[in-house]
Design goal:
The complex is a heterodimer of chains A (259) and B (294). Chain A has 259 residues and is mostly helical. Chain A is 74% helix and 0% strand. Chain A contains 13 helices and no strands. By secondary structure, chain B is α/β, with parallel strands linked by helices. The chains are: A mainly alpha (259), B alpha/beta (294).
Chain lengths: 259, 294
């Protein structure tokens, strides 16, 4: 069943140009910007090339850069969902036989596919840089910290669930994209400032972002900057819980709404 | 006869507007069931609820005698406007509908043939004219040859030839034994293709039954004579007469079932009343419809 639902979702978006534009941007910009760091010490951080580009460091630094790229598939999900409203194709899908639950399953399956594809791409980029900067052939050093790849996949999926609930609620793509960005950049920080310190770190976007921590943490602490990050297991647990919550809320919203 | 669809006491409001007010109806297998009502009477809302895209405030419905979700794949439906992905071709759109319904994708070619869109099957939906969009929506409803069709204003936006073709298609489908629900504000459309009809207005049921009972053309007779008092007196007491209206100088009467002008005249002559004017007229369907939905 899941496979059929995914196939339908793919058929819906394959000829949709923004899909290719956003994925193209992702594919082009991620390795370019990552490579660009090499020539730049502008942010004042000492850049040890073999540490950033070689194994296993490449996994932490590349996924950290990639975590900023999650907004692109997020935008895509928003546009796809908003289209379903404005073309009234959610309505048509239900008339044709989908339940509201299957509408959400469709988007979820697409999100899983996107996050797997993009993580696989990131893996390839990481291997490329890693191998290029490898002094000696050593397989075990490649797989060290490679668990950052599945963390990256989970993180991408989580950001897409946030994009999903926003677009399901708001219906309109431009407004949803603005809200998505403003939430990540401003609203959540604002909310955090009202929360007691003990739970500040447990807001949704913060748990997503702590899946892949700040790679210059050590240096930052040496410089006396206090870094507050969730333990990885907590970040994983809360990310999974928030993603499930956003998916569930999307379903409940669609269920009670007239299409 | 098996029940295909039954709506039980469905109510629905949009903010302050009461779109459906305790509406019930039953559609039996093999019937071509018309939902007739003026614009805004609740036809689309009723069908939207039956098709699961609108949530009723109260009441229930069942398809094929079952209330659980998941019966829609057995139904082909066109609701209000054609809804397709504009950047996809007609064929790509139909393949999506087919996949959701669990119907073989090849069936898209057959239904495109029926609605005469085969030549334009690879054009994007956004390039279609209103009439073509409507025909594509009908094609989507026909996918998988479903046993039940729900068609909401199916001739909307079509040219006269298209209208005739779609009506003929509906008649043929009805004759082939399919159950069809047809919502329309056009009385002649309902009269031409339907076997049963419900008339609704402001979300309430005004009349329901076989088409010949609800929409039959009523006869009435206009009479005049010298002694109007005597004629009126006789008619008022006659079992032939259902009701009497004074129209200008003349009397306008409708007869009880089973009587006609010939018998009435014979009776009048027997009573010694000679009429100077006797005219039989039929009430037009439009008049009847306006009366029903007044």
């Amino acid at each position: 069943m899941m496979w059929n639902i995914l196939k339908v979702e793919i058929k819906k978006i394959l000829p949709y140009r923004p899909v290719w534009i956003f994925l193209g941007l992702y594919v082009l910009l991620l390795p370019l910007i990552f490579g660009f760091f090499k020539n730049s010490t502008s942010n004042g951080l000492p850049l040890d090339v073999s540490k950033v580009y070689g194994f296993p460091g490449v996994w932490t630094y590349l996924t950290y850069l990639g975590s900023y790229f999650h907004v692109l598939p997020g935008f895509l999900i928003i546009m796809i969902v908003s289209n379903e409203y404005s073309y009234r194709t959610f309505r048509q899908n239900v008339i044709d036989g989908y339940s509201r639950f299957e509408l959400v399953l469709g988007k979820m399956s697409l999100m899983v596919l996107l996050s797997l594809l993009l993580s696989f791409y990131l893996l390839l980029v990481g291997l490329f840089y890693g191998v290029a900067n490898m002094q000696e052939m050593n397989l075990s050093i490649i797989s060290e910290k490679i668990y950052y790849i599945p963390l990256f996949a989970l993180q991408g999926f989580a950001y897409m669930t946030l994009a999903l609930i926003i677009s399901v609620l708001v219906k309109r793509s431009a407004l949803s994209i603005i809200l998505f960005l403003v939430y990540i950049l401003i609203i959540e920080k604002f909310i955090q400032s009202f929360l007691p310190e003990s739970i500040q770190l447990y807001t949704p976007e913060n748990t997503f972002s702590d899946l892949i921590g700040f790679p210059w943490k050590g240096i930052a602490m040496m410089m006396g900057v206090e870094m507050k990050e969730l333990a990885l297991s907590l970040a994983i647990g809360f990310t999974v819980a928030y993603s499930a919550l956003f998916l569930g809320l999307s379903y409940l919203t669609l269920k009670q709404r007239d299409l | 006869m098996n029940q295909i669809l039954s709506l039980n006491n469905i109510s629905k409001s949009f903010r302050k507007l009461k779109a459906l007010d305790n509406l019930s109806l039953t559609v039996e297998e093999g019937s071509v069931y018309g939902i007739l009502g003026p614009n805004g009477s609740g036809k689309t809302t009723a069908l939207g609820i039956a098709l699961g895209v609108i949530n009723a405030d109260s009441g229930s419905y069942s398809w094929f005698g079952r209330t659980e979700d998941g019966q829609r794949k057995r139904i082909g439906a066109l609701l209000e406007t054609p809804n397709f992905y504009p950047y996809l071709s007609a064929l790509q759109n139909l393949k999506i509908s087919a996949a959701i319904k669990g119907v073989k994708e090849e069936d898209a070619h057959r239904v495109l043939e029926i609605v005469k869109l085969s030549e334009r099957k690879n054009s994007k939906f956004s390039t279609y004219s209103l009439g073509m969009k409507q025909r594509l929506a009908i094609a989507a409803a026909l996918l998988g040859n479903p046993e039940v069709l729900v068609l909401d204003e199916p001739t909307n936006g079509l040219d006269p030839q298209g209208i005739a073709e779609v009506r003929e298609l509906i008649i043929n489908l009805g004759q082939s034994g399919k159950t069809i629900l047809l919502a329309s504000h056009i009385i002649e459309e309902v009269e031409k293709v339907c076997s049963h009809v419900v008339v609704i207005k402001k979300g309430q049921k005004l009349a329901e039954g076989e088409i010949s009972d609800v929409l039959h053309e009523e006869e009435y007779i206009i009479l005049d004579t010298e002694d109007k008092e005597k004629l009126h007196g006789f008619l008022s007491n006659s079992s032939y007469v259902k009701n009497i209206l004074k129209e200008k100088d003349r009397l306008k009467i409708s007869l009880s079932n089973g009587y006609n002008a010939y018998e009435l005249n014979k009776q009048l002559v027997k009573e010694g009343i000679v009429v100077s004017h006797l005219e039989t007229k039929k009430k037009s369907l439009e008049t009847k419809f306006l009366e029903l939905t007044k």
